Amino acid sequence: ATFSVSSVFYVLTNERPHVCQSSEEGPTSTSGQPFPWHHMRLPKTVSPLHYDLAIHPNLTTLDFSGVVRIQLEVHRDTSLVILHAKQMQISEALLLAPEGARPLRVLEYPRFHQLALLLDSPLAKGGTYQVLLGFSANLSDSFHGFYKSSYRTSSGEVRVLASTQFEATFARAAFPCFDEPAFKAKFTIQIIREPRHIAISNMPIVKTVELPGGLLEDHFDTTVKMSTYLVAYIVSDFLSVSKTTHRGVKISVYAVPEKIDQTALALDAAVTLLDFYEEYFHIPYPLPKQDLAAIPDFQSGAMENWGLSTYRETALLYDPHKSSPSDKLAVTKVIAHEYAQWFGNLVTMEWWNDLWLNEGFAKFMELISVNVTHPELQVDDVFLGKCFEAMEVDSLPSSHPVSTHVENPVQIQEMFDDVSYDKGACILNMLRDFLTPEAFEIGIIRYLKHFSYQNTVSQHLWESLSNLCSPDHLNKGDRKREEFCSARARHSTASQQWFSDDELDVQAIMDTWTLQEGFPLVTVEVRGREVRLSQERYLKTDDPSLTEGFLWQIPLTYVTSASSTVHRFLLKTKTDVLYLPQEVDWLKFNVDMSGYYMVHYAGDGWNAIIHLLQHNHTVLTSNDRASLIHDVFQLVGVGKVRLDTALDLSLYLSRETETMAVTQGFEELVPLYKLMEKRDMAALENQMKGYIVDLFRGLIDRQNWDDSGSVSERVLRSYLLLFGCVRNYPPCVEKATRLFNEWRASGGHMSLPVDVTMAVFMMGARTPEGWDFLFEKYRTSLQMSVKSRMKVAMAFSPLRDKLAWMLEQSVQGDVMKLQDLPDVVVTVSRNPRGYNLAWDFLRANWHTLIKKFDLGSNIIAYMVTGVTNRYSTTEMLDEVKRFFGSLTEETGSEMRSIQQTYETIQDNIRWMEAHLPELQAWLDKHRPRIV
């Protein structure tokens, strides 16, 4: 059913609704009457079947009006319908019945974003009814709901557009709806616009109707059944390019007109990836088209709206002449992520506690899909780093289980973090390695076919991955499964099936990884042929009681000096013993870091590994070497390993050439001097910086200042030359400074090698003249990846007046976009000349920031932790606590990121107190050996 709202225009007042506190008797509505529903979650008495939604955004007055007609299914007799609406004027509320329209009484409870529709007579169980609501609101000036975006053309004209971002709880700010993921429905959308604009939404346009006054009304086809957070629409002047997949799905990429020539990579990647996912999931993509739109103002990286995914411009646009291999990988990876969310759009988590089913799976599928479709991008390197990042957060007492209880919108927003995304991906990767890739893929297909268009909990996934070869009507005719099961029956003793079906309880294993926070530290001690194993929670704390009561089922993998075959063992108990066929010189657990756990080699174990790395490091893979570097330095912090042992291991890095191991060396060593930069200890700080430069000097000297080599080699080159310049290594500084001066003399027209631009810009930003030239180029450039590198270089300048100006400009959001402010703040905080500016700025602008970026969002958490995570004195801890302690719950006092901040600073203090003398002694001792 469709209807027109061409004559329905409403005006919203600028007043914000008054937020009433609950009284002892219960919540009170804005009218002063009791509100009839007392819970944050909606009742299950009715559910929506279909929305007819008509919207008219006015891009001149920056507001919108609309009408929504919702078809309801009644599950219990009720005289009450509770749904969501946020900061919205409701102008009309009707019950549409066969005998005619009847007005509904409306009560509002802004604290829970709820509306109550009160009926004179009850709706009967089993019946279907329709309610109609007229509404209006201002376009949001934040990055969520139905919000205003703008961009400046090369001629200086500012153009306005309107776009949506509804995940997690912001559809309610655009139209009245049942804004919880389990309330799936179909949507038929109409959008009124001016002829100079276009409108796009989840589905293709069916027809366009001319309205009085020169307006046009686009009617879109009806969607599949989906959650409200996936609804999307954009009114803009975008242009598009299109291609078609093998099966005939139309793929289009939309961007502002002057950047449409930067869309070719995204278009090709989108077609290739959608073809891959159709093959992998064994399900045809259910929509006729999939659009990708680059939005000039966008808070996160991208959003998986079904049929219309939206992206930050830097996440979608790519200039083959100006963008780097890292940019190419980033664009491909984010498209792979959003397309993998087809999995979560089709089968959606019941509630936000299982967000990881969507986001963790999508992050994991980046690895699987990009490895197959774009092997040259070597995505494995990036994936391993994500597991280390997840462990950083997961090692704090304030961590949370992957699946954890959440209730209110702030808690829901906080679920979009490294635990849900990166830990979720890493434990799925571990499970895939444990089950074998073939078994994992068959289980995923079962899950999708069984639960299509439904909502699920984690248990449903584990059930689908168990008993793969038992009779199941859903798998009849599944050739891939039949081949797998017959092969497994023929080779039941083969190494790939190292467990029997009756031993395999996927849910029992995975519950230990999803229902408890943290991760295990496995201690390995070799005594002859006997390998003694024990597990405990790895936790950065001085309270040992916090590690008690944790037990995981850990799929261990290991190789030894006697056998490069990957051996497997499922550790289910606190301690266990393995027996080797023969004594070995060394063994390495967690092969390729496929498992989400750390390993401590007790007794003489670390010495054996250090000896191996110093004499024959290539016996181990790059991922294995990176995980050893990670684990040994992390174990120093909890007192398991001496600092000099970790530093002794790092000496081998002077011979390392692989990207993952080199970058992990930097990841562990650089934070040591970063802690000192925020203290008055220049001598030791410079000694530590000198050690790292000398360690990698040979590798830095071997880098060409061009764009030759593989993706991995080019990423490493960019990393090393940037480090050399930042650390004032003379050959780097001289070369980069000369290149910047030549580039500036050419008016910025000289073509710089892409891989060296970051280092060149960083040197240029050190002088006022160079900084001003960079800013002018930043202001006029249309290449998003180039602008991004310029922004970082300017924010790392030693010129404090420029840093302060840049922070203020980012708040105003004119020349420097507000969306870039978090990156500017965090980069300035990492700048030894600017970290106190960033901290002062965060405090002074706190209320503006939480309004623009939303309380509990990962962007707020990124700024909070990014600005504070290198403080290491009790004085700064007290100052940080004073500020955050002065907040109320409404302004963020309960956010998890604040607790993480306290715990991180406390851990830094403990580390500095325990290890500074040892670090000084080791550096003094080894200075002559560093060549």
UniProtKB/TrEMBL annotation:
Cofactor descriptive note: Binds 1 zinc ion per subunit.
GO cellular component terms, A-Z: endoplasmic reticulum membrane; extracellular space
Domain of life: Eukaryota
One function term, GO molecular function aspect: peptide binding
Residue ranges constituting the Peptidase M1 membrane alanine aminopeptidase domain according to the UniProt record: 266-468
One Pfam family, short name: ERAP1_C
Keyword Membrane listed: yes
Subcellular location: Endoplasmic reticulum membrane
Keywords: Adaptive immunity, Aminopeptidase, Disulfide bond, Endoplasmic reticulum, Glycoprotein, Hydrolase, Immunity, Membrane, Metal-binding, Metalloprotease, Protease, Signal-anchor, Transmembrane, Transmembrane helix, Zinc
Entry coiled-coil feature ranges: none
CDD domains: M1_APN-Q_like
Recorded topology in the membrane: Single-pass type II membrane protein
Positions with a binding annotation for Zn(2+): H337, E359
Location, primary (coarse class): endoplasmic reticulum
Residue stretches making up the ERAP1-like C-terminal domain: 586-906
Entry EC number(s): 3.4.11.-
Domain Aminopeptidase N-like N-terminal residue range list: 48-230
Active-site residues (renumbered): E338 (proton acceptor)
SUPFAM superfamilies for the chain: Leukotriene A4 hydrolase N-terminal domain (SSF63737), Metalloproteases ('zincins'), catalytic domain (SSF55486)
Site for Transition state stabilizer, residues: Y421
Role noted for this protein: Aminopeptidase that plays a central role in peptide trimming, a step required for the generation of most HLA class I-binding peptides. Peptide trimming is essential to customize longer precursor peptides to fit them to the correct length required for presentation on MHC class I molecules. Strongly prefers substrates 9-16 residues long. Rapidly degrades 13-mer to a 9-mer and then stops. Preferentially hydrolyzes the residue Leu and peptides with a hydrophobic C-terminus, while it has weak activity toward peptides with charged C-terminus. May play a role in the inactivation of peptide hormones.
Protein name: Aminopeptidase
